[in-house]
Structure formats: C-alpha cells, structure tokens
Design a protein that fits this description.
By secondary structure, the chain is an alpha/beta fold. Helices cover 53% and strands 15% of the residues. It contains twelve helices and eight strands. An eight-stranded mixed sheet has the order 3-4-2-5-1-6-7-8, sandwiched between helices. It is elongated and about 85 Å long. The N and C termini lie close together (10 Å). The mean pLDDT is 83.
C-alpha cells in the first residue's frame, strides 16, 4: 500500500485556526525521516515554520533548512504574479511594474491568476527545475495550503485557466499542474480539523469540494487537540453521586472551630468534581464529532491535546511519529 509520503505532493488544509501549519510541519518531518528530500511550502507573506523548529524567520521565497532532509519555503502569491509578469515584460523592473496601472488592472481583472502562478511554482518544486542550482530536487512537497475555501480556489485555478488558455506556455504548465493534482499516484490530500461541529463540517465540505473540482478524495483527516476519556461508566456514576451529596449537604456549623478549613476543603472538592464532569462532557462531545468523520471512507487520526504553553520541535516530532505510524 502506497504511503502518503510516497507521493510528490501532499496538500494539507482545513478550517483556519485548527493547526494546519503544525500538521504540515509534522508531515514534512515524517517524510524526511522516511528518507524523502522534503520541502514544506507556506502560502502567504508570513513564515511560521522556522519558529516551530526554534529557528529565526526566513525571507519569503528563500528555502531554509528546518531539520535533516527537510526544508521550508514561503510563497507570496502577489510576488509570484509580479515575477511571472516580469518574465513576460522582459527588462521592465519589478518596482515599475508593481506600481503600474497595468499590473493593478491585470491582478484585479484576472481572478485566480495569483493562485495559478503559485500552483505553477509548487509544481516546479516537484521537478528538477524546482531545485536551486547545484542541488538535487525534492522528493516530496508538503503544501501548507490556506483555509478550506481559499485552498479549493487555489487547487481549482488550473482548471479555470485551462478553459481559457488552450495554447502556449501557460496552457502547457496548467495541464501539468492539473495532472499532478488529479493523479492519485502523485498527490494526496490531508484534512485538518478540531473536534468541533464547525471544523468537522468544514472538513466534510472539503471532501465534497475535492470531489467536485478535482475528482479526488481526502486520504485522511487529522483531528487536533483531543481530550482523553479519563473515566469509566462506574467512575462517572461515583462522581455524580458525590457531587449530588455535596450539593445537598448542610454547611458547617458556625460554632465549628475548623469551619474555615472545612469550607476550603469543600470548595476544592466541588471544583475537582465540576472539572471532572466538564472534561468528560467535552471529551464525549469531541468523540461524537469524530464519529461524524468516521462515517466517511477516509482515515481519521486523532492527535492528543498537548499540555504546554507553546508547541516546539519536540511536539512536532511527536506528531510526526503518529503520522508515520498511521499514514
């Protein structure tokens, strides 16, 4: 069975704020550990990948080493479109072109142009031409794609432009990008979600969007920040019983010399009982959301909640290990 990391391109997307960049970094690390020369690509002006590995930010468009066999790169769609138009415009400088009304008009009048040029750059990374001079190409490109709606627009841009530009270099590149995106042997799609109703719904919409636009399916959905189900049914009954007894018990007598200490202990016990019940309810709700995903045909992989203030390279490594085992 072909692993997800055996493809040329692995696209990671989902609702905003669900941890896509962390999962993309972990997927890239898993690919690198498997012996694949891997690059993780962010789309946008900011680069968050180096920070996950304890490294300083990198300049947009410049690959940076993240770990052994692993690199990161951010692609700014505006800059990518400008560079492409510079190629068409010959010796016209980028500064002149960027400030011209023609460029602004083209960018506004050709919706999807930036997305297409971005996808062409990503496709080139999967080929020898995508490597920098004097270095080998990449075996695996992990795309940290934008949130679901924008990601579907990005992935659908070759189809849109393919219907317009049927001849010439743009048409040829568009067809090659489309073939990469539609070929299950060359590319795969990984959804990311939290176990919330909205995030799970968006993951299901992502699956439907991939079918409609590319005729593809999600290979798996990674669900972040899952709480453990800590209590058995018997323990939950015991907790409920104790909580009920506490609620009906009279307060300590005012003549009791230890009234203050008893009140303190009661407050601590009540807080612990409330916390136990709250955590159980949240965990049960999360697992109900997991059940919604498991009714589909893709793999569902849960990532436990990590009790730390900030994710670091060790956390990314732990997630990468889980991805390697499951995918």
């Amino acid at each position: 069975m072909q692993s997800l990391f055996d493809r040329e391109l692995l696209v990671v997307t989902g609702k905003g704020g669900v941890g896509k960049t962390t999962i993309a970094a972990a997927a890239g690390l898993a690919g690198a550990r498997a012996g694949r020369r891997t690059i993780v690509v962010e789309v946008g002006q900011e680069s968050r990948l180096p920070g996950l590995f304890g490294l300083p930010s990198a300049r947009p468009g410049v690959p940076c080493a993240l770990a052994a066999n692993l690199w990161g790169l951010s692609i700014d769609p505006d800059r990518a479109l400008l560079e492409w138009l510079q190629v068409l415009g010959g010796r016209v400088s980028g500064r002149v072109l960027a400030s011209s009304g023609t460029f602004q008009y083209f960018a506004a009048a050709a919706p999807g142009a930036k997305e297409l040029v971005t996808m062409v750059k990503i496709w080139r990374l999967t080929t020898a031409r995508g490597a920098r001079a004097g270095t080998a190409g990449h075996d695996l490109v992990v795309l940290d794609a934008p949130a679901t709606g924008h990601a579907l627009g990005l992935l659908g841009s070759p189809h849109t432009f393919g219907a317009i530009a049927r001849v010439g270099p743009i048409a040829g590149q568009t067809r090659k990008v489309q073939e990469l995106l539609q070929n299950p042997q060359r590319s795969a799609y990984l959804g990311v979600a939290l176990a919330t109703e909205m995030a799970v719904t968006e993951a299901l919409e992502l699956q439907d969007g991939l079918r409609t636009r590319l005729g593809r399916e999600l290979a798996a959905v990674v669900v972040n920040a899952l709480l453990p189900q800590r209590f058995s049914a018997a323990e939950l009954e015991r907790i409920a019983s104790v909580a009920q007894q506490r609620a009906s018990a009279p307060d300590s007598s005012p003549q009791d010399a230890d009234q203050e200490e008893r009140a303190r202990r009661r407050a601590v016990t009540d807080a612990a009982l409330s916390a136990a019940q709250t955590v159980h309810r949240r965990a049960r709700f999360q697992h109900n959301q997991l059940a919604r995903l498991r009714r589909r045909e893709f793999t569902v992989l849960g990532i436990p909640f990590m009790w730390r203030a900030q994710l670091d390279a060790a956390a990314v490594g732990a997630i990468a290990t889980r991805l390697q085992r499951a995918l």
